[in-house]
Amino acid sequence: MRAASLAAAGAAALALSACGGGGSSPPKHHIHLTAFERQGKAVFIANCGGCHQLADAGTNGGAGPALTSPATASHVREVLADGPSFMPANIVTGAKAAAVAAYVAAATK
User: Fold this and answer.
1) Which tens digit of pLDDT belongs to each residue from 54-109?
2) What is the pTM of this model?
């Protein structure tokens, strides 16, 4: 009888962990990105991630602000062009800047 109870408890624990009910960390929020936004993510990681924390990108930079609040693509383009504070102006430009802006807007929704 005890073996049956242990087996049932083990099966219940396995079922809970398979659907996220038994883990200690919350499930990650899945963000659907377009191909253009995925390009922006790669450019963001390479050029911005060293300074900025962005959960979806997996970056932990601490020199610039963490990107946790919703941002519009147009605002991100302005920031990339102006380079506020000690951020260099035009760190990325053209199509790369547009892709980064689209990605950051999608990732901070």
Assistant:
1) 999 999 999 999 999 999 999 999 999 999 999 999 999 999 999 999 999 999 99
2) 0.73
| Residue numbers of the domain that contains 43 | 29-107
Distance (Å, rounded) from C-alpha 6 to C-alpha 2?
6
Q: Are 92 and 43 in contact (CB under 8 A)?
A: yes
Rounded to the nearest 5 degrees, what angle is found at the Cα of 91, between the Cα atoms of 70 and 49? 55
Residue 23 is assigned to a structural domain of this protein:
no
Helix (H, G, I), strand (E, B) or coil at 60: strand
CATH number at residue 74: 1.10.760.10
- Joined tokens for residue 22: 């038994």
In the chain, the number of structural domains is 1
